[in-house]
Structure formats: structure tokens, C-alpha cells
């Protein structure tokens, strides 16, 4: 190497500001260099810097890289393709040298270099507790693989060191909750986001780039950044359209990436089904995604891409894979979400009509259930007999299987949620709910909400770690049903609902360290419990209320999974995505919801004595449904009621609850002695409970 002095003589010691900004060689003439004179630009020089101290060179280099990215993304300078590739390689080299994310033994922490003159942020090295790329990939396949995303298998990643940097960063963002410093996910996500945008701006998008967007959007959803999640999900979907991955004709069996493309496409659809926006003209019409119609469309030019090949747990080549079954149920789930949105906007169509959304969803659900292969059904796989070690080794099958089971029961739970129809009756005084519908709906919601609790019991007993926030959401929905029945007049149902509510809340809290969205959901449920009981320090394990108050807005937040990390939608958009000039103003509907602090008063009083003739299967049980005035304090025994207390002088009275207590439904009741130890009830030995997994009536009713 030549001495320092000889090397510096080969170039100008000082470049003008224009040449320095363009990163081109400056002749160095003063007072104006020939390049600026030729371009008719004002030429100026910065003051000569003092000799750099230890560490300043690296900071200057990082600042230069930030400036390059800002200039490229803003389009302020024209750069040739070769120069773009060179800059991208410089960024990759810098990030790799700073973070060492390709080195398995690397353990570093990433902090943000706050620079008021630059919006780009890149990680800098600090001695602490980051997660390396290889460790992040291991964590991804341990927890997130096929739960719910499935883009590639471990054996398809031949050389992890050659993975695109944006893909590694996005995987690190997903793996961050399982590290010692989970808050670092934001730095990983920002790095992935900037590299992805650089590829989009320069036309170098690859399949791994869209996969990175898929993982990145899911990471934002997990961390309650719904607007950013939807933005990146929409961008990934648009790139799929540009690559024509939404056409069946685009998949060639001779293409080695065909299966990987299928998984990516349907993983994006899974995110859209669970987290996509349900309002506005630009939302994807779910009707076009009816999956089982694809095999009957024939000449229809809009055939859907085929589902990926998934033979885990299948008994024949023609069986639909279990992950694909979750896509089917996810499509139904998206329609349920739309149904809840319609209900929240007072657009409920009478569910007993043959062309109502309620009826069509049930029809589609039965069709999917009919197409579920025997090899995946509950009684066939006998999950409750499996050993924990067996489930751990075959996690790629059992995690999607559990999600399908949760979704099946959650769909029927939310469709028949009593809150929907009580609120509908409040806003539609002329709405009269038929007795038979109310009775059947009450039976279904109690049955399937209890099934969700039974699934939680088994998951805890088998030590299966579930991390998908959508499952947490389903447990919260079941908790609201159990809360509703906590004020039942029947002591057995009251006690059972209290126990099941506790289980749901503890299961939900287990997701809090992994997801800010679940943390917000848990806080919403805690607020609703405080309002329901009228106290913030209530011991809910011994809580046996005669009435509760359900906050309307909080109930909608839980049913719709509304969480913005304790920020309003306007604050979230302004801080993370949009300029303040584009921040949407709150609509009249949102202001009305904010101002509406009303609650529903759910009351259950003494049940009347009813003589039931079981000769006809209990059909003679009177199921009156009427509007009754509020009983006075001097009145005697009143019928069992479940109603709403509003500004009106009438209460909505539901049918008597004693139809749930006859001998035709013994599976609802467990031995109360099984729940005496409330502190250690993480799992109950269902072999000793009447109607347990041993094949009695409980497990023969309502399962998938």
C-alpha cells in the first residue's frame, strides 16, 4: 500500500457540495469547479473538516449512505442502473458489516440513529442483545411457519447466507418477540421496508421481495400497526398482480418456483381474510373468492390459482391439505367480519331470511365442512389422545389443524352472538326475532363458545404454543359470550361461565408478550370487565352477578379486533405513514361512536317453574318473546329475562333460559368439584369430567 500522503494526492482533498452530493469526481478548481461551470450551477465548498477522531469515519459513512437512499427514493438525481446496483451493494455491505446478521454467533443490538435532516434510519452497532439472521430463521420455523404464513420450507433455503437482506430483516422482525429485546422489531421492520422500497423504485423486485412484504405486513398487524400492515399487504398484492400470480395460467409445473409462488399468493389471501379492511369501495369483494367454485368455473377466465401441494396428514392424494383447509375457513371468517361490520353500522338484514348474509354464511360453512376430508376430522385424528412430544415433532400439521378448529367454532360463535341481535333490536324497534331463531341461536353460541374453551384446555395440557393473534381474538370473542352468561339465573350455567371466562382471559394474557395487538385486545377486555362489574378491583373468580353492564363501543372493538396501540387512527397514520396534510378527519360515525358511552344492562332474574312434556322431545317448552315494561320493585317473581336498558321505557326480553338445562344437553355441565382450585386450573383432566373426551355426548356434539 502506498503511504497515506501518496494516496491522497491521487484525488482532490475537497470536493464541492454539488459533486459531493452526486458522488462524482470533482476537479477541485476554485472558486468554481469545471463541472459546475459546465452545468451552469452555483459551486461552493464546505469548510475543511478537522481530523476525524476514532469512530467518526463510520458515522460519516453511515450518513452518506442515508443521503444516497433519500436522494434515490425522492428522485432528485438521475443514476444509471449500474450505479444503482453499486449503491445497493454498498448499503448491503454496510448493513452486513454493522449488524453481522449472517453470522450465527453474532449477538448485537440495533438502535436508531436519529438525524433531523434525514428521514432514513439505519441500525448502528451497539453491544447488547440483537438476534442474528440464522437465529431469526430458526425462530420463524419454530413458531410462525404455517401459523398462518407458508411461503417456503426449511429445505428450500439451501444457503441462508445468500438470502436477500430484506427477507432476512423481515424475518427478524417476526422473530423479535421471542428475543430478550422484543422492541427491536421496529428497527428490523424499518430496514426491511427501506430495502423493499429501493427494489420497487429501481425495478428489481424478486419473489423474495414480495415474501418480505408478506412477512413485514404480518409483523405490523401483530404489533397493532394496522394501517402500515394494510399498506404493505396491498403493495404485495399489487406486485402479485403485476407478476400475474393471480392467474391460474401463470403457474407452470416445470417452474421450480411454482409451489413457492402458490404459497405466497394464498398466504397473502390469508392475511387479507383476517386483517384486511372491511369498509370502502377499494376493499376486495369476498364473493369473488369463494374457493370451492374454482373447480366448477371451467370457461371462466377468472380462475383462481391452485392451492399449494400439502400432503401432511392426508390419507390420499386427492385430500385437501390442512393448511389449505384453513384458507377455506379463513374465507368464511372474512365474510363473518363483514357481517359484524354491517351489524355495527345498523345494516343487519334479518338473519332468518333465505338470502341474508347469515344464511349464506351458514350455507358456505356447511359446504366447506362437507368437503373437509375425513383424515382431518376431530374424531379421526383424536388430538386429545396425542402426546405432547408427538405434537411438537409434527407441529407443521397440528398448528394449522388447531387453527381450523378454532375458526370453525368461532364462526358459529360470532354469528350467533346475542350482542348483535340485542343491539339490532335496540336500533330497530320494529324488529321481532322469532322464538325459534332466538332459541337455536342461544344454543349454538353457548355450545361453540364452550368448545373454544375446551380447545384452550387441550392446547394448554398438550403444551402447544400458539402465537397467531387471530386465535387470541377468537378466545376474546368466546370470553364475551361467557361474560354474557355469567348473569344467568341458573347457578350451574353461572358457575360454568365464570370458570370458562377465567380460562379465556388467562389464555389471552399469554399472547400479550408476543403481540401489541393482543395487548390492546386484553386491555379492552379488562375495561369491559370493569364496566360490567362496576369495579376495577373485582375478584372475578368468585364473581356471581345478577346483572352486568356491557359497554357497546368496547364490545364492537373486541368483535372487530380494533386496536391501534392505544393511539387513534389519525395519530397512527400521521406518525407512521402519511403527512399531516393527508390525515383523514374523523367521520360523523366515529364521533358518534366516541360520544356513545351507553351500556346494555343484561339482567337475569328468577326462572319460572315450567312443566315440560318430553314426549315430543321437549318441543312443548314455552318460548315467549315479548316486550315487557320494567318490573317494579314490588312485583313478585318475574320471568327469566335478558334485556337492554336504554333511554326507552321498555326492555328487550329474551326467551327463558331453562331450555338449556333439560336432559337433552348434559354436555354443558361439568362436575363443580373439578374447579375448586381456581388458582391451578390451567387444565382439567377431562377423563374425570362427565361428558369428556372419552367419547361421551359432549364430544359427539358440535365438533368439526
From TrEMBL:
<keyword id="KW-0238">DNA-binding</keyword>
<keyword id="KW-0539">Nucleus</keyword>
<dbReference type="InterPro" id="IPR050815">
    <property type="entry name" value="TF_fung"/>
</dbReference>
<feature type="domain" description="Zn(2)-C6 fungal-type">
    <location>
        <begin position="15"/>
        <end position="45"/>
    </location>
</feature>
<dbReference type="Pfam" id="PF04082">
    <property type="entry name" value="Fungal_trans"/>
</dbReference>
<feature type="compositionally biased region" description="Polar residues">
    <location>
        <begin position="632"/>
        <end position="650"/>
    </location>
</feature>
<feature type="region of interest" description="Disordered">
    <location>
        <begin position="94"/>
        <end position="125"/>
    </location>
</feature>
<keyword id="KW-0805">Transcription regulation</keyword>
<keyword id="KW-0804">Transcription</keyword>
<dbReference type="GO" id="GO:0000981">
    <property type="term" value="F:DNA-binding transcription factor activity, RNA polymerase II-specific"/>
</dbReference>
<dbReference type="GO" id="GO:0003677">
    <property type="term" value="F:DNA binding"/>
</dbReference>
<dbReference type="GO" id="GO:0006351">
    <property type="term" value="P:DNA-templated transcription"/>
</dbReference>
<dbReference type="InterPro" id="IPR036864">
    <property type="entry name" value="Zn2-C6_fun-type_DNA-bd_sf"/>
</dbReference>
<dbReference type="GO" id="GO:0008270">
    <property type="term" value="F:zinc ion binding"/>
</dbReference>
<dbReference type="InterPro" id="IPR001138">
    <property type="entry name" value="Zn2Cys6_DnaBD"/>
</dbReference>
<keyword id="KW-0479">Metal-binding</keyword>
<dbReference type="Pfam" id="PF00172">
    <property type="entry name" value="Zn_clus"/>
</dbReference>
<dbReference type="GO" id="GO:0005634">
    <property type="term" value="C:nucleus"/>
</dbReference>
<protein>
    <recommendedName>
        <fullName>Zn(2)-C6 fungal-type domain-containing protein</fullName>
    </recommendedName>
</protein>
<dbReference type="InterPro" id="IPR007219">
    <property type="entry name" value="XnlR_reg_dom"/>
</dbReference>
<feature type="region of interest" description="Disordered">
    <location>
        <begin position="631"/>
        <end position="650"/>
    </location>
</feature>
